[in-house]
Write a structure and sequence with these properties.
The structure is a single chain. The chain has 111 residues and is an all-alpha fold. It has one domain. The chain is built from three helices and no strands. The longest helix has 46 residues.
Length: 111
């Protein structure tokens, strides 16, 4: 994946985090039932395919999974960068405020 302006080491760090989160989600008890149901349905579907259909479906599934993975990874990276940018902007704005007005504190007794 290539996200403009993001260094490769940061992409690798995000990729590792996404992989870790995916493994945790797949093994979490609340998701096991859904994964088991999907597996049973997939096996039933596979039984209805000929060898050629099974191969075509497998190729389609691999392509789809890769594309979805690329898009989700980019959304994760962009979301992180958006959050970081928002934090930096808020920090800058807070730094420009008088100390007495920061964090909801004010000298004004009507606030």
């Amino acid at each position: 994946m290539s996200v403009d302006g993001v260094p490769p080491w940061l992409i690798k760090a995000f990729r590792n985090r996404v992989d870790d989160l995916g493994q945790r989600m797949n093994s979490h008890p609340r998701n096991k039932k859904a994964w088991k149901q999907a597996s049973v349905l997939f096996e039933l579907l596979q039984k209805t395919f000929s060898g050629e259909q099974r191969q075509m479906f497998s190729e389609w599934e691999d392509h789809l999974a890769l594309q979805e993975s690329i898009e989700k990874e980019e959304m994760y990276v962009r979301g992180f960068l958006d959050g970081f940018h928002m934090y930096a902007c808020l920090d800058e704005l807070i730094g420009q405020m008088p100390i007495s007005e920061r964090f909801g504190k004010s000298d004004n007794p009507h606030n």
